[in-house]
Amino acid sequence: MTPLTAFDADVLIYAAAADHELGSRVAALFADPDEAGVAGTGSVLLLPEVLAKPMRDDPESEEVAGLLGLLSRLELRALDEATGRLALALAVRHGLRAADAAHLATAVAAGADRFLTNNRKDFPQTITEIDVVYPDDLPSVGGPIGSPRQG
């Protein structure tokens, strides 16, 4: 069974970038969606966090199209009161800023198996509420499925 992945903004930006080594690993997760076409989950805050700058720069760009394509494959979850309260607890416990706490709380509340981010400073793998995974933990594109990168 494929784990439910919750996405942080940085890894979606990588996935939309052409020929980005870490991005290609993230993009591969979108190649095998569930039966509803959903590749994962995330906070609705991903929309402004990921799209605001590229849409200001050029709303017709390939980057915007790529990001919209990725976001359309995620179940974006609203920040309701329960998730907001969880975000507060996580912010206090882990020293997170509001947006980071909201992303992590959304992942936990959604029942995700893992939270995919490249933000090692704010999301160390010592966080216990969910498995924190970094893009270089994912298999290389063309590598065996499920095998981590060989260093």
| Global morphology | globular
- Main sheet properties: 3 strands, parallel
Going by CATH, the architecture would be 3-Layer(aba) Sandwich
Identify the quaternary structure here. single chain
Q: Can you put this structure into words, describing what you see?
A:
The protein contains 6 helices and 5 strands; from the N terminus they run βααβααβααββ. It has 151 residues and is of the alpha/beta class. The chain has a single domain (5-137), classed as 3-Layer(aba) Sandwich (Rossmann fold). The chain has helices at residues 9-16, 21-27, 46-57, 62-71, 81-94, 98-109, and strands at residues 5-7, 40-43, 74-77, 114-116, 131-133. 32% of the residues are buried.
Lay out the secondary structure.
Elements: E1 5-7, H1 9-16, H2 21-27, E2 40-43, H3 46-57, H4 62-71, E3 74-77, H5 81-94, H6 98-109, E4 114-116, E5 131-133
Helix pairs in contact: 1-2, 1-4, 3-4, 5-6
Main attributes?
alpha/beta, 6 helices, 5 strands, 151 residues, 3-stranded parallel β-sheet, 11% strand, two-stranded parallel ribbon, single chain, Rossmann fold, disordered C terminus
Give a brief outline of the structure.
By secondary structure, the chain is an alpha/beta fold.
